[in-house]
Amino acid sequence: MKNLKEANLSISGKNILITGASRGIGRTLSIELSKLGANIILLSKNESLLENVYDKISYKTETDPYIIGCDLNLLDEPRSQEISNIISDNYIDLDCIIHNAAIIEKMSNIEEYDLVSWEKVMKVNLTSSFLLTKFLLPNMENAKNPRIIFTSSSVAFKGKAFWGAYSASKAGMKVLSEILSDELEHKKNFKVFNFNPMATRTDMRAMAFPAEDPNQLKEAMDLIPYYIWMLSDKSKDFDKINLNYGDKI
Fold first, then answer.
1. Where are the domains of the chain?
2. How confident is the model at residue 249 (pLDDT cuts 50, 70, 90)?
3. Is 91 labeled as catalytic in the residue annotation?
4. Does residue 244 sit in helix, strand or coil?
């Protein structure tokens, strides 16, 4: 990746909301981007785990992190507006939303997939991304290089048996990112990405592939250069929305 050192410097001072910040990719992103000077708004339903991430950031950096406890399965319009207000009260603007939180809930064929699980997965993975984006776009109005980054999956591009609502929600997220990119095209330097991290060592991956050797998978740390690049002005002329780990940038 060219000019990564320069891109690193451009992260300093950015205000970034990361959903699912308490564990996995979201936790790693929160800590590593903080080391580069970003102010991370940590969002998750597990506030005790968020406090652990917050403490690590506060101990290692001089940034201004903030915790927002939120169960995305219960997110509605009033709570989304409240989150927007909280961010406005604590930060001048919002530079980026990283939609990282997601659940699989269950692996099942469609015939045996229950409605409660289906609706929960769609709410956490897709509907919450719509709501947060809708209510946080005004917070991004004055950002220099605003970014919205959706965390994608290979099953967003081709449905596979037993992936049910997770695959459908990720496919919906892909389309949502494309809609937003088209609608925001007139805004200078505003970029939307749908980033597929590919196989990464996480608890979710272990649930989906219990027989897989996790030691054969890359770690979340390996994804950091891609996020740094997407967040920097180096990505402003990139003409694609969908980006996979391993793609040349």
1. 4-244
2. confident
3. no
4. strand
DSSP string for residues in 52-112: HHHHHHHHH-----EEEE--GGG--HHHHHHHHHHHHHH-S---EEEE----------GGG
Which CATH code of 3.40.50.720, 3.40.930.10, 3.30.460.10, 1.10.10.920 fits the domain covering 4-244?
3.40.50.720
For 161-196, the pLDDT digits (tens) are: 999 999 999 999 999 999 999 999 999 889 999 999
Give me the helices (H) in the chain, please: 4-9, 24-35, 47-60, 77-90, 115-122, 128-136, 164-183, 203-208, 224-231
Question: Which one is catalytic: 54, 59, 91, 166?
Answer: 166
Residue 148: helix, strand or coil by DSSP? strand
**Entry field: residues in the chain:** 249
Return the closest-CA partner of residue 192 out of 140, 117, 120.
140
The rounded distance, in Å, linking the Cα atoms of 207 and 213 is 12
Contact criterion met (CB below 8 Å) for 170 and 189 = no
- Tell me, what's the pLDDT at 222? 93
pLDDT at 87 over 60: yes
Please state, in angstroms and rounded to a whole number, the distance separating the CA atoms of residues 116 and 122: 10
Residue with tokens 């009033």: 78
pLDDT digits (tens, 9 = 90+) for 122-160: 999 999 999 999 999 999 999 999 999 999 999 999 999
Q: Which residue has the higher pLDDT, 4 or 18?
A: 18
